[in-house]
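We include the entry.

. . .
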Amino acid sequence: MVPATHQARLGLDFVTDKNGANVLAQLGCGYWGPNLLRNFSALPGCWVKWVAEPSAKRRTYVEQNYPRSQVTASWQETLDDQEVDAVVISTPASTHFELAQASLRAGKHTFVEKPLAMTTVEADILVSLAAQVGRTLMVGHTFLYNAAVRYIKDQLAAGDLGQVYYIYSQRLNLGQVRSDVNAWWNLAPHDVSILLYLMDGVLPVSVTAQGVDYIQPGIEDVVFASLNWANRVCAHIQVSWLDPGKVRKLTLVGSRKMVVYDDVSDEKIAVYDKGVDRVPKAGERMDYDHFNNYQLLHRTGDVLLPRIDFQEPLKVEASHFLDCLRTGQEPLTGPVHARDVVAILEAAQQSLRGQGRTVAIPGR
């Protein structure tokens, strides 16, 4: 993203209302949109001037609850408003590419709900366009703004967990059954974004995925996917909207310690000082020099339940977007991260269609 010192030269002046607030337009206020509208409307220095929504019922909801925001059925009307300097897109996933492209071409900073696009080709176009026009492009991978996930990242960076062996996650619920996307595209972007974050943005080399469509033909209700990295780290993702209970859990097994992140528990993080240690033992000549001369010992230590200073991740995410507008800094969930999430999602979708065959993940 363009440094703040170069913004004036490139014409990145921020259009604001009379109170000096950044002026936003939001496209879509259906399932997730009200949460975004609530958070952006509550932030200081932010005015959501427009909400574009085709449903008359949802427009009435906005009028009754957010009187400072104008409503329209036309998203183009919001892009034509020169006072608007940023657009928030919360529409069906299949429309993200078209709307984000239109927003960037109109010179607007753009926030897109996950996923950025439905293909890697589309994502690459948006990444290139954002750089070309010098506008911030950020995607709503909300869990990277979750204090519990950031705690795990900090523990990895400090070396407290040792070498990562493997990770597995479950995102399950008896919840909303979608018709526009399958459970993989609906639920897995969260887990894929977390995995990329924990792996320092390094792409896995391949993925395999299997799923079944029980309710609607061609739309998988449950998916099991396995990702493999070049450094032998492997990860498994299970997603379903047909499970009996709500599960949002990730387990990371390291060489020194293990971590369980349970998003629906009061104890978000549990760190287990457990593992298997390779301990040298003396040979017949009382030496320790032979490679195979060791014993494996199980280690069981303390269980740590750290205190997590929790803020609503969506509030942190919205605030971060505004900070990026004002400073020119690269968003944590910026174009490259969002593009890589799409690359993994698309490769897994190809594996699903290929009955679980291994699919290589394209690099940047």
Q: What stands out?
A: The CA atoms of residues 6 and 12 lie 8 Å apart.
